[in-house]
Amino acid sequence: xxxxxxxxxxxxxxxxxxxxxxxxxxxxxxxxxxxxxxxxxxxxxxxxxxxxxxxxxxxxxxxxxxxxxxxxxxxxxxxxxxxxxxxxxxxxxxxxxxxxxxxxxxxxxxxxxxxxxxxxxxxxxxxxxxxxxxxxxxxxxxxxxxxxxxxxxxxxxxxxxxxxxxxxxxxxxxxxxxxxxxxxxxxxxxxxxxxxxxxxxxxxxxxxxxxxxxxxxxxxxxxxxxxxxxxxxxxx
Length: 236
Prior knowledge:
Number of strands: 9
Shape: elongated
Structural class: alpha+beta
Helix content: 40-55%
Order of helices and strands: EEHHEEEEEEEHHHHH
Number of helices: 7
Strand order of the largest sheet: 2-3-4-5-6-9
Radius of gyration: 19 Å
Strand content: 15-25%
């Protein structure tokens, strides 16, 4: 699940449509950042660094004071997973300008905002949104995605028997990553995955068995699942 979830009254918009939303006047202690400027800078910075954007999604709440977005990029030679980058912003002092990234992220208008890497900057008088976004990509490029993709390679190179998978799935349920009723569905997905890319019996395939089932969860439940799985599989 690397998608924008709008089910609490928010509406989808294009990147260009974000430019029509008025940004409030700054005060002596608070400087709001234009939704369009924040979103456009994330897209521009991703392209500047050679990320091939596969798709992008943007949305705002009913009154336009909160913005949410997700862009998805596939690393060269790795069609089986994507680099996902989420962004959110506010004009009502409710949210800091934030960026979240990972192989599995969640950005929702109910304010769930999760992934393996998360950075935020409050809208103080001296906020420099352009610097913050550029810095965030530095973090993602030098440590965030690099460590994450090393972790994924490690999972792919760790074979897993069905019995070992059973133990890990039960442990995940005990940790609260999944409800007990999903123990057998996750095991079945591991044994007979619906996607050929996860046919090899290893820890990466088991991780994706979990995330395949998590697609049916509510945003809050999925966020908890991803966080717990990140800890269990060493991707946090």
